[in-house]
């Protein structure tokens, strides 16, 4: 935990992370908070945070002065509940913010917690549509300095021990919800039509999803494509940009997704995306310009979309350049951080929090 060179009284914003296991919420805090900290006194609190994230122990929150106004930015139910307890039981002077990435209607309990927030943020317009109160839409951004195209994609593939051939990837947790089987089934049809193309599956299967992964491996082996559809182990977060840079095309085949950063991470690396219309994907991928959008769970449409893309290498190159420009123009992490910090300032200065849509 990074020891912060400031007194507790100087802290203006607290971002709790009340979950030890790595999750999308934790990843958001880890990548976003150091950028926010460049212009506001913000810290995280909770377990499982890497050393470079400005953090304080949970017990320090209880010790904080009741006289100082602060923002408590929750992203989970447990964190909303803790914020309400800190404000109404321990009498801390907190403005409460909640970020929702949910793509479904909230339970009565969650709605009750949300009703106690001073401001609500949605990570996409679709997420905002499921809320029963006004919300600010602040779309996630990407570190375009870390995620960028390689100088030579073929040479970069060699450096990773891959073939120089055209490479298609499917990255993320391996389970039915993530549509890994749709990707594999589509590749089983596509690859025999395109000699020299390689497909990568990178991610982790939780214990209960290991039989699902094993079934996919067996299907690939039976088809004799085990040298062209490669299942690679999960890659540390800091190494992921290198694996996006190896791709010519990313497939995001999810059946359900809260937000989904993989299309943005890929496009920042100049990689076009074929994605399903779940999560925020249809707000991130521009149909026919940075990739394609198809219905979830449709193997035939996935196969057709990938097949049509591979037979037009010039289009793939155009999409690659357009994808990078698209992210630079509207999805930089600095813009997300600045928009959130502006909301915090508004709350700390005594303003409201709801009713205005902001994108960044």
Q: What does this entry look like structurally?
A:
By secondary structure, the chain is α/β, with parallel strands linked by helices. The protein has helices at 24-36, 58-63, 77-88, 108-115, 125-129, 153-159, 180-190, 210-222, 240-244, 262-268, 281-284, 299-310, 313-330, 333-348; strands at 13-16, 42-45, 55-56, 70-74, 94-100, 119-122, 136-137, 167-171, 198-202, 229-232, 249-252, 273-276, 291-294. It contains 14 helices and 13 strands. Helix 1 (24-36) crosses helix 14, helix 7 packs across helix 12 and helix 10 packs across helix 13. The two termini are 29 Å apart.
Ends distance: 29 Å
Helix count from the secondary structure assignment: 14
Supply the helix-strand structural class. alpha/beta
Largest sheet: 7 strands, parallel
* Low confidence ranges: 1-5, 353-360
Helix content: 25-40%
Number of strands: 13
Overall shape: elongated
Could you tell me the mean pLDDT?
92
**Beta-strand content estimate:** 15-25%
Rg is 22 Å
How would you summarize what this structure contains?
By secondary structure, the protein is α/β, with parallel strands linked by helices. The protein contains 14 helices and 13 strands. It has a seven-stranded parallel beta sheet with strand order 3-2-1-4-5-6-7, sandwiched between helices. A six-stranded parallel beta sheet has the order 10-9-8-11-12-13, sandwiched between helices.
